[in-house]
Design goal:
By secondary structure, the chain is an all-alpha fold. The chain is built from five helices and no strands.
């Protein structure tokens, strides 16, 4: 039975350590994401996070929780915007837009009816 409690304690300590590391990395990321805080203040926070870890992390979360959430949300929106832009650039034109462009070329006489039908068939496949 004693082995069970040792194992349970080991799992609990590992979980607490991983949870603390997650919080620590979140705080450090937020510190470098914060453009309003000066470099000296960031250095002081880092110093205290490494030498008085739990108390400093708790104080940082209490003092900066609102700003931390706003900066995290802004970073997520920036990543989403970059992904959406990349997807639109890679995806290219929609089939309807390609057919419309080909029709405009046909109407201007730049391509023949056969070429238009070939572009239309290729687009719809």
């Amino acid at each position: 039975m004693e082995g069970f409690w040792e194992f349970f304690w080991f799992i609990f300590v590992c979980f607490a350590f991983v949870a603390y590391l997650t919080v620590l990395f979140s705080i450090i990321t937020d510190l470098f994401r914060d453009r309003d805080t000066s470099g000296w203040v960031k250095a002081i926070w880092i110093f205290f996070l490494f030498f008085i870890p739990f108390l400093s992390a708790l104080i940082y979360l209490i003092v900066n929780s609102d700003g931390m959430a706003k900066r995290s949300m802004a970073a997520a929106q920036q990543v989403k915007h970059a992904q959406d832009t990349y997807i639109r650039d890679v995806a290219g034109k929609s089939p309807a837009q390609e057919i419309s462009d080909a029709k405009a070329l046909l109407d201007s006489g730049a391509i023949t009816e056969a070429e238009f039908q070939a572009i239309k068939a290729k687009t719809l496949v």
